[in-house]
Design brief:
This protein is α/β, with parallel strands linked by helices. The protein has one domain (13-257): Rossmann fold (3-Layer(aba) Sandwich), CATH 3.40.50.720. The protein is built from 7 helices and 9 strands. It has helices spanning 7-23, 33-45, 78-89, 107-117, 133-145, 179-190, 239-257; strands spanning 25-29, 49-53, 94-98, 125-128, 150-153, 165-169, 198-202, 212-219, 225-232. The chain has a 7-stranded mixed β-sheet, with helices on both faces. The radius of gyration is 18 Å and the shape is globular.
Length: 258
């Protein structure tokens, strides 16, 4: 690896901490507006091992906020685009791809977390940028029960002001009346989880011009068919990206404490 590659990082935190990051393994679940910026910031920080999980391809509606979404990448798999991009940032980075939908009923999805908990290449941290409620809750529950450190996005849609973002433990989350926030808190509380998970949240009141719901149908790689109603949030170029960078910064600081 070139000595120049992370030279500006080491001017801040030193060579020893840069070497620590090179040995760490972080899993990023969801490569949209939040997770994409998180994954890229982790790679630019010098995290040496990344597992990236997403089932989706780039659509034109992603272009306003997702870092790999361009006219030239529409229709391409997000995992493949990120693998190529992150390798272009750091040729020595080790990347594991799971190009599939994370669900509690999916054996592959359970294998993703099992490998990261018990197996070779155990996760030092998990970044949750999933926007599907059941999958999100299952991932958080799995991390919580297995003591895998996790930071989760509490929703970056329907907002414009990144200065309203903050990081807090579950028990200290504000703006609990926001629909997505209240649903996450309710589902976790049903599982007996009221603290011990870190979130990136916003104090901004959500806003959307029109409530749009679409029926989503997904077929996993194993052939399982999943159907659910998906609420389409408004989005801006500002909040999701900053949420992802907040997550990456928090993760790196925690990795230095290990």
């Amino acid at each position: 690896m070139s000595e120049e590659l992370f030279s500006r990082n080491t001017l801040y935190w030193g060579e020893d901490k840069q070497k620590i990051l090179a040995q760490k393994h972080v899993a990023v679940f969801g490569l949209g507006g939040v997770g994409g910026f998180c994954a890229e910031a982790l790679a630019r920080a010098g995290v040496g091992n990344l597992t990236i999980v997403d089932f989706d391809t780039v659509s034109e509606s992603n272009i306003n906020r997702q870092i790999i979404a361009l006219q030239s990448t529409i229709g391409q798999k997000k995992t493949e685009l990120f693998a190529k991009r992150l390798k272009d940032i750091n040729p020595d980075i080790n990347i594991k791809i799971f190009d599939d939908f994370y669900t509690e009923n999916e054996n592959l999805s359970l294998a993703i977390m099992w490998r990261g908990i018990k197996g070779e290449g155990q996760y030092d941290y998990v970044a949750d940028a999933i926007d599907t409620m059941r999958s999100k809750i299952h991932l958080l529950k799995t991390c919580y029960e297995n003591r895998v450190p996790v930071i989760s996005s509490m929703g970056a849609g329907n907002r414009i002001d990144p200065t309203k973002l903050y990081i807090a433990d579950l028990k200290d989350v504000e703006n609990r009346n926001a629909t997505f926030v209240s649903n996450v808190i309710y589902q976790l509380k049903k599982l007996g989880i009221t603290e011990g998970i870190t979130f990136v949240c916003s104090r901004e009141t959500p806003q959307v011009q029109e409530k749009i719901t679409e029926k989503e149908e997904i077929i996993t790689n194993s052939g399982e068919k999943i159907e659910f109603n998906k609420i389409i949030p408004s989005s801006t170029p500002f909040v999701a990206s900053c949420s992802g960078i907040f997550m990456a910064s928090y993760i790196v600081q925690r990795l230095f404490e290990d």
